Amino acid sequence: MPAFLNPELGLIFWQLVIFLLVLFLLGKFAWRPILLSLKEREDTIDNALRMADQAKIEMQQLKAGNEKLLADARHERDRMMQEATVMANQHRDAEKARATEEANRIIAQAREAIQQEKNAALAEVKNTAAQLSVDIAERVLRRELSDPAAQTQLVDAYLKDVKLN
Amino acid sequence: MKRLLSILLCFVSLSVFANEPATEAANEQGFNPGEMILEHIGDSHEWHLATLGEGEHASHISLPLPIIAYQPNKGLSMFSGSQLAHGHSHNGLKLEEDKLVAEDGSKVYDFSITKNTASLLFSAALMLIVFTAVARGYKKNHGRAPSGLQSFFEPVIIFIRDEIAKKNIGPKYERYMPYLLTAFFFIWFNNLLGLMPGAANLSGNIAVTLVLAVMTLVITLASSNKNYWAHIFATPGVPKPLLPIMIVVEFLGIFTKPFSLMIRLFANITAGHIVVLSFISLVFIFKSWAVAPVTLAFGLFINILELLVAILQAFIFTLLTAMYIGGAVEEHHDADHQIGGGDGADQAHVPAHAH
């Protein structure tokens, strides 16, 4: 068997001792901190990504909320506008109705007053006419007029004096 | 790869035939490609850097390495390898064909810092420096984007965690991450270091792959649950008369899986080194500058391929380890092929020159 196929005891010993020593030292001072750092970094990245996703979702929720709020506000404004319009219309109609009624009332009152005045005037005319008639008759009687022509003339003259106003 | 190897073999055999009449002359020149390659892929008690001169006048430039030996009768001894150079003996020990032996023939346990052990220490130090720097990056850039070394290794670490550990082991993957990461980077770093000129062939050394495979086996067995053993000793869906055969097959499977891990890494890396060195050797075999462009082109091609193989083999070793652990900790066996058929599927990943 060639020498290179024959494992030497010395090298087996040194390989075992040195490899185990390297394994121990690297395990303690290199692999442990390296693997821990890698894991930590990966966790950090994972967390950051997850948080970014969450933030995105939250943003979307916020945006949706804002939009809902905005839509609500718009809806509310529309509703209020409509209400205001309705109320204004109602108010205007009521006012109009009230004004018409008032006007009608005033007109009716005026008519009534006119009617009363008219009646009063007519009554006065009747009274005056009666008075005049009585007066005329009195004067006619007093002058004892025999002549009918003179009587008519006299009545006309009296009538001319009486101005019917 | 197989075709390339056969072309290479043709070249080598041709040159052998061509040189046959002049074998003695070749011996005088002192270049033996097989010996050179075996020396390069093997271990050594010195770190050979270069040879100046030829034949008798050659002077070797090499780094002496510490010798550590344990002898049952003498105890532990430790001295510089330079004391044993040129066949000298020290403290009753000498090197015979780079093998440490006692002069009196007694038993010697060799724990020397060989070329491979030195390379192992270097790569271990490099890994500690690199990955503690990466870890510091995480502290410094806490909560910020990675930078520098950190950003180079982070995708690899995440790949191992997500694609290898999580997918094959399941929710309990975290316990096994240190081993998977250390094994992956250890194999990758050493595969790359092995490709450097003058470097040791550490990850292509069977002792190293043996230790790695045994660790995978121990971790697999230590984390095995009831289902794992039930699958071995009472394989679901198998008729009763076949069970004795299945038990033997499945039981052997416990050991053949890590064994394949050991052989796969060793063979891939060693074969890669052999192929690169063989192409380089062609220049010396043909003794002609004319083959240099071909040699260089092929050598470069294989070397670049080896860069790919370096990470591929680290990936395969880690992936299979994760699959074996995954099979041991799995709670419900709804995917039987994950354990039984695992090895068949694995082989698709392995480059042809592994076999």
Structural class of chain B: mainly alpha
Fraction of residues in helix of chain B: 55-70%
**Poorly predicted ranges of chain A:** none
The end-to-end distance of chain B, rounded to whole angstroms, is 10 Å
Give the count of structural domains of chain A: 1
- Order of strands across the main sheet of chain B: 4-3-7
- Separate helix tally of chain A: 2
Describe the secondary structure blueprint for this structure:
The complex is a heterodimer of chains A (165) and B (355).
Chain A: H1 9-143, H2 148-161
Chain B: H1 2-19, H2 23-29, H3 33-41, E1 46-52, E2 59-64, E3 66-71, E4 75-80, E5 93-96, E6 99-102, E7 109-110, H4 115-140, H5 149-169, H6 177-194, H7 206-222, H8 226-233, H9 243-286, H10 292-329, H11 337-340, H12 342-346
Task: Kindly list the characteristics that best describe this protein.
heterodimer; A: 165 residues; B: 355 residues; mainly alpha; 2 domains; 12 helices; 7 strands; globular; hydrogen ion transport (chain A)
Description:
Chain A: GO terms for molecular function: proton-transporting ATP synthase activity, rotational mechanism; proton-transporting ATPase activity, rotational mechanism. Chain A: It is a single-pass membrane protein. Chain A: Pfam families: ATP-synt_B. Chain A: It comes from Hymenobacter arizonensis (Siccationidurans arizonensis). Chain A: Belongs to the ATPase B chain family. The complex is a heterodimer of chains A (165) and B (355). Chain A has 165 residues and is mostly helical. Chain A has 2 helices and no strands. The mean pLDDT of chain A is 88. The longest helix of chain A has 135 residues. Chain A has one domain. Chain B is mainly alpha-helical and 355 residues long. Chain B folds into 2 domains: 50 residues; 240 residues, no CATH class. Chain B has 12 helices and 7 strands. In chain B, the strands form 3 sheets. Chain B has a 3-stranded antiparallel β-sheet with strand order 4-3-7, with no helix packed on it. Chain B has a two-stranded antiparallel ribbon with strand order 1-2. In chain B, helix 5 crosses helix 6, helix 6 packs antiparallel against helix 10 and helix 7 runs antiparallel to helix 9. The longest helix of chain B is centred in the last third of the chain and has 44 residues. Chain B is globular. The C terminus of chain B is likely disordered. Chains A and B meet through helix 1 of A and strand 7, helix 4, helix 5, helix 6 and helix 7 of B.
